[in-house]
Amino acid sequence: MMVDEEALLIIAGSREYPRVVIEGARASGVRRIEVIAFRHETRAAGLKGADAVHWLAFGSLAELLQRIEASGIKRVMMVGQIAPRHLFSLRLDDAAKELLNTLAIRNAHTIFSALIREIERCGVQVLPAHSYMHDYLPAPGAVSARPPTVAEESDMGLGIRYIRQQSAFDVGQTVVVRSGYIVAVEAMEGTDRTIVRAGRVGGGRSVVVKVPRQEHDFRFDIPVIGPQTIQVMKRAKASCIAIESQATLIFNRPKTVALANRAGIAIYATESLR
To answer: Structurally, what CATH architecture does the domain formed by 7-126 represent?
Structure first.
């Protein structure tokens, strides 16, 4: 087995994140890119820029580790979502079952942290999920044309404090606030459905806060917003979204900002909270 120090191995989940990382890595001069993808989860169309794609069944830990070792690639990234429904319908191999049995507490953080430890035993380095993504990380300040109002800033502060204090419970990264009240907290349904639920419960003019947890591990997760986020906010009549600078990705930024400006929605990147 030859070791390729200039290559990148991507473990790809769903949506457009894998495609964006492949493009960013190519632009940064990565010579060879291989992808491990999951049947019924990863979008094949987003992997066209890869040199090789290896399809596995989600839950086959032994095969995943074998594929990592066989690649000879020493830099690995985990990108893209895995649908929460898999937590209830996984067909795990013996290696995955054994890994889960070692965990006193099972949640996304403990499971993916344990998975990373297993991957790194293959002699590889797991890179942060925002590697090669500098252009997608906003600087502090207003991203949209309209900055937040004083009232929106107050609700942003409440939402950030709430997420920080609830980090230990491994809830989602999104909370929706209106006029000093917590309207909705993300659980397993994801950001978009949380925003929709908040619109039904609290009505319009709410503030969406989406920031990483206090002890966030960026090797397997980073908050992402994009055009769909703004479209959902518009339908829910939300007025503002707060993200963390250098710790949240904005996909298709020109379209995201244009949609926000047309809808009068403020996008604001806070100073780094790390």
So the answer is: 3-Layer(aba) Sandwich (3.40)
Which conformational region is residue 253 in: left (phi greater than 0), alpha (psi within -120 to 50 degrees), or beta? alpha
pTM given for the model? 0.89
Q: Residue 85 burial by CB count (10 A; 0-12/13-18/19+): exposed, middle or buried?
A: exposed
Domain 137-270: which CATH number of 3.10.310.40, 3.40.50.2300, 3.30.450.40, 3.40.140.80: 3.40.140.80
Location of each CATH 3.40.140.80 domain in the chain: 137-270
- With a cut of 60, say whether residue 249 has pLDDT above it: yes
User: What are 211-246's pLDDT values in tens digits?
Assistant: 998 778 899 889 999 999 999 999 999 999 999 999
| CA distance linking residue 194 with residue 36, whole number of Å | 30
Percent of the chain with pLDDT over 90: 73
* Single-letter amino acid, residue 269: A
